[in-house]
Design brief:
This protein is an all-alpha fold and 203 residues long. The chain has one domain (2-202). It is 49% helix and 0% strand. It is built from 6 helices and no strands. Helix 4 (85-96) packs across helix 6 (184-202). The model is unreliable at 1-15 (pLDDT under 50).
């Protein structure tokens, strides 16, 4: 049993390492020309259709139908708290592996940013529906990025653990705070550039 757990954890780590490498590797000279936001708080530029389309065209294993449902919810929830929805959606893509959920967080958990996911025995928080899971993600991201109080009712079960509030106002600051991965911010930025490139190509 123990060996199976080790193999499972190893496979999970390998998947996300490979995914992260793929995210960075798919950058091209064209995508790198797009300016991306530096701060987490602010307004996004992408439409719900553009965000969902990016998931659909980037990987055949991603959940395109779910992406289409989540995109407008991310825009609405992010706008309510003053968070840039482009940044939040890109982080969701990274954390879930384009909604493939091949890590320790399962699709039914509606946990789109790995809240509380530590190990096979601590797989993270479970939310009753997609809206609640997205709201928790946005609130947790705001806790990292801003000292301003939440606009809505507290949903994020780990909100109080973020101290001090506003310790990571930029995407770069998420590296070493939100995640230990030294390429964490670079991967989010890479996804954002590719999302903007894809949206521009559709015009």
């Amino acid at each position: 049993m123990y060996r199976l757990m080790i193999k499972s954890v190893t496979a999970t780590l390998f998947f996300f390492a490979a995914l992260g490498a793929a995210v960075l590797a798919q950058e091209t000279p064209d995508t790198k020309t797009f300016d991306i936001p530096q701060h987490i708080m602010g307004s996004g530029k992408l439409t719900a259709q553009q965000m969902a389309t990016f998931v659909a065209v980037t990987t055949i294993e991603g959940d395109a139908e779910r992406a289409a449902r989540l995109a407008p919810l991310y825009i609405a929830e992010a706008q309510a708290e003053g968070v840039n929805h482009d940044v939040a959606f890109a982080q969701m893509i990274l954390e879930t592996g384009f909604l493939q959920f091949k890590g320790i967080v399962a699709p039914h958990m509606n946990n789109f940013c790995g809240l509380g996911a530590v190990s096979l025995t601590q797989t993270g928080h479970i939310f009753p529906d997609e809206l609640t899971g997205i709201r928790a993600h946005i609130q947790h991201l705001k806790a990292y990025a801003s000292r301003e109080p939440l606009a809505g009712e507290l949903i994020d079960p780990r909100y109080s653990f973020v101290s001090p509030k506003g310790k990571a106002p930029t995407i770069d600051a998420l590296t070493g705070t939100w995640a230990k991965d030294p390429q964490y911010a670079a991967k989010i930025k890479s996804l954002l550039r590719r999302m903007y490139y894809n949206a521009n190509a559709e015009m």
